[in-house]
Amino acid sequence: MKKLYRILLVLPVIAVLAFTSLGKDDALKGTRDEIIQVMRDQEAAWNMGDMQGFMKGYAQSDSTLFVGKTRVNYGWQTVLDSYLKAYPDQAAMGTLHFDLIRVEPLSKKNAYVVGKWTLMENEKPASGHFVLIFEKSKAGWRIIVDGTS
User: Fold this and answer.
1) Angular region, 139: left φ>0, alpha ψ -120 to 50, beta rest
2) Which one, of 49, 88, 51, 81, lies nearest residue 66 by Cα?
3) Which domain holds residue 19?
């Protein structure tokens, strides 16, 4: 009888823990899905020649940081201007593809993404890797730090 009593006491605790962890997993999956969608939207905008649409993935802030092979840019507008200088039209933009290696929530408001980018422009592929830090705001998940090589 004591054994049955112990089991009956432990079962609700196990059930609560199981449901709590399920909720966290669902929330993490939702976060991952939302961030992946931002990346897919950026990819689609780029491939349509829509630089403004591509930039919607970034936080529109003076503190947005882009670290590339040869430069460090601060601010959404500076990042946009740099992209426009390097890719003045759709032909120059080519076709972009992201291969997302890891999408990892760090908290309710922050996550990071590790991936590979491939750009086909004039049949000459270019590629490299990136690490992005996302922050959740009223506008949704946005990139606040972009380290691209």
Assistant:
1) alpha
2) 81
3) 2-148
Give, for all 149 residues of the chain, the pLDDT tens digit. Answer: 544 344 344 334 333 334 444 444 555 778 999 999 999 999 999 999 999 999 999 999 999 999 999 999 999 999 999 999 999 999 999 999 999 999 999 999 999 999 999 999 877 899 999 999 999 999 999 999 999 99
Domain total of the chain: 1
CA distance 142 to 12: 39
Could you tell me if 45 and 56 are in contact, meaning their C-beta atoms sit under 8 angstroms apart? yes
The DSSP H or E segment spanning 69 is none
Query: pTM to 2 decimals?
Result: 0.81
* Residue carrying structure tokens 């882009």: 66
CATH number of residue 126's parent domain: 3.10.450.50
